[in-house]
Write a structure and sequence with these properties.
The complex is a heterodimer of chains A (184) and B (123). Chain A is 58% helix and 14% strand. The relative contact order of chain B is 0.13. Chain B has 123 residues and is mainly alpha-helical. The N and C termini of chain B lie close together (7 Å). In chain B, helix 1 packs antiparallel against helix 2, helix 1 packs antiparallel against helix 4 and helix 2 packs antiparallel against helix 3. Chain B is flat. The chains are: A alpha+beta (184), B mainly alpha (123). Chains A and B meet through helix 4 of A and helix 2 and helix 4 of B.
């Protein structure tokens, strides 16, 4: 388990309702409504907690007849805390993780369901956003300006600004034939 | 009578906000941080509509119909955008967002009902 995974799991566990859900699942697999009834909280709240627990790798789900059943991922809980503490983390890896977390934070803040909510004003953040959009372009392919605009418009209406900035940030290049994605 | 309806609604908003804050504190003390945050979300919704009511009163210059129209129109506008947000979350199977949007929708539903009861009932 990496440090980031351990932190996510511990954060997730530091909530009484989630602990009670896990305690219930330690007895047997259950579905949302049953957990809600057992714990005296609403079904949407149980779903909310289960999503967080699933993201932290603490529970998994499977379909059984009409119900989505949830079960405890016992292997996660068989890891001892000492094992987690003894795991070495080198500085480069930590830095890489920090960068990835920052990147994810920016992506989460500026994108909603794959659409760009606003173009960031900070250059560092805009670069991250443009890199995400650049992933929609294939390498070794020439795109017409219209094709570029259509791809960018899937993310944001202001395709002119984004297209220009992607060229400025050297994510795309262009000549008389059209545009192409620059390899890093 | 607008002189009775507005204070009654204001009292309702204040009481609901106080209750949400109380429940939030209790949940926090019980180490249920996310559920405590849900109560804060509810309190914020009540606060938004308390503000809308005060703007409605200020802009309508004592005309009860204008207050009602303003309040109902704003409520419908907000409700429609929250329904869209919920549907979008549902479409993307975003359980966390769905839960938060559901709380907002439940609260706005309750406010609508209470407003109608207070406004029509006092007449």
């Amino acid at each position: 388990m990496t440090e980031a995974e351990a932190i996510r799991l511990f954060k997730c566990l530091s909530d009484k309702s989630r602990l009670q859900i896990l305690k219930s699942l330690a007895i047997e697999d259950m579905y949302v409504e049953r957990l809600a009834e057992r714990l005296g909280i609403t079904a949407p709240t149980v779903s909310f907690h289960l999503k967080k627990l699933a993201d932290a790798g603490a529970v998994s789900s499977y379909k059984s007849q009409y119900y989505m059943m949830y079960s405890l991922k016992k292997d996660i809980f068989e890891t001892s805390i000492l094992e987690i503490l003894q795991e070495e983390s080198d500085e480069a890896e930590v830095q890489e993780q920090r960068d990835a977390e920052y990147r994810q934070k920016v992506v989460d803040a500026f994108f909603e369901y794959g659409k760009l909510k606003a173009i960031p004003t900070q250059r560092k953040k805009e670069r991250i956003v443009l890199e995400v959009i650049a992933q929609a372009f294939e390498y070794d392919r020439i795109y017409t300006e219209r094709e570029v605009n259509i791809i960018i418009a899937d993310f944001h209406d202001d395709f002119c600004t984004i297209r220009r900035d992607m060229v400025g940030e050297q994510l795309l290049d262009r000549d008389a034939r059209g545009y192409w994605r620059i390899k890093p | 009578m607008i002189e009775q309806k507005v204070p009654k609604l204001n009292r309702y908003f204040e009481e609901q906000i106080a209750m949400c804050n109380q429940r939030s504190k209790k949940l926090l003390d019980d180490e249920r941080t996310d559920e405590a945050a849900f109560e804060k979300v509810k309190a914020n919704v009540y606060d938004i509509f308390r503000t809308i009511l005060s703007v409605a009163v200020k802009t309508s210059k004592g005309d009860p119909d204008a207050v009602r129209r303003f309040f109902v129109q704003k409520t419908e506008q907000i409700l429609s955008s929250w329904v869209t947000a919920y549907d979008k979350a549902k479409q993307h199977n975003d359980t966390v967002k769905m839960c938060l949007e559901q709380i907002k929708l439940d609260t706005i539903g309750e406010i609508k009902e209470n407003f109608a009861k207070t406004w029509e009932g006092a007449e």
